[in-house]
Amino acid sequence: MIVMPLALVLGLLAGLNEGKPLDRILSIGGLMTTATPNFATGIFLILIFAVWLKLLPGATVFASERAIFKNPKMLVLPVLTLTLIELGYVLRITRASMVEVMGTGYIRTAVLKGLPYWRIVFKHVLRNALMAPITVIMLHVNWLMGGIVVVEAIFGFPGLGRYLLDAALYKDVFAIEAGAMVMVMLAVGTQLVADIIYTFLNPRIRYA
Fold first, then answer.
1. Are the beta carbons of 194 and 202 closer than 8 angstroms?
2. Burial of 33 (0-12, 13-18, 19+ CB in 10 A)
3. 142 Cβ neighbours under 8 A, 6+ residues apart
4. Per-residue pLDDT for the chain (208 aa), expressed as one digit of tens each?
5. Which domain holds residue 111?
């Protein structure tokens, strides 16, 4: 909900400003956040915001089922950690896709015809440039649900990935099977949503 729209907007800005200072700043920043391990990002954020500044809790403590609603601050650091991890990758994919589409012949033709710049961007460039980022985003939804075991362990968050890890450590076969089934259904569901989105972005794509 947070990282994907933010990454798409920043990738759009970087692609439209190819080679300019804004593009360099966003690309280098995205590369730095992507290259930093998730456990290092989480620990640094805990050290800064929980230990030094004492603004946010450094761990999630679930005293009841409604603990998160009573203290939403518990979600800030885990969400910020995942945002920094994912932001750079999706941003760079979006930026590369934008640059590729901006260099195509039909975009140059639209510019030469005198069409308004932002009309070209939103009506012609954006729809075609979103094909690759949508694929990456839908693949990463599955990872965000079950593959962030390290982040869940750092912040003590009882997520699906940590649940599957505990089930594997205690050899709970039925829990592993149930969790795997949920992950498979999620993967199939997200890819189905991606296929549906493709038909809106590219009218040439049709499914029988």
1. no
2. middle
3. 183, 186, 187, 190
4. 888 889 989 999 999 898 899 999 999 998 898 888 988 999 999 999 999 998 888 877 766 666 677 778 888 999 999 999 888 889 999 999 999 998 888 888 888 888 888 888 888 888 888 888 888 888 888 888 888 888 988 888 888 888 999 999 999 999 999 999 999 999 999 989 988 888 888 766 665 5
5. 3-201
Cα separation, 69 vs 147, in Å, equals 24
Kindly give the residue spans of alpha helices, DSSP state H, lying in 37-116: 38-45, 67-70, 76-102, 105-112
Read off the tokens for 82.
């995942």
CB count in 10 Å sphere of residue 136: 18
Question: Using CB atoms within 10 A of its CB, is residue 4 exposed (0-12), middle (13-18) or buried (19+)?
Answer: buried
CA distance 48 to 208: 54
Distance CA 206, CA 208 (A): 7
* pTM exceeding the 0.85 threshold for the entire prediction: no
Find the CATH number of the domain harbouring 21.
1.10.3720.10
Number of domains in the chain: 1
CA 174 – CA 166 distance, rounded (Å): 12
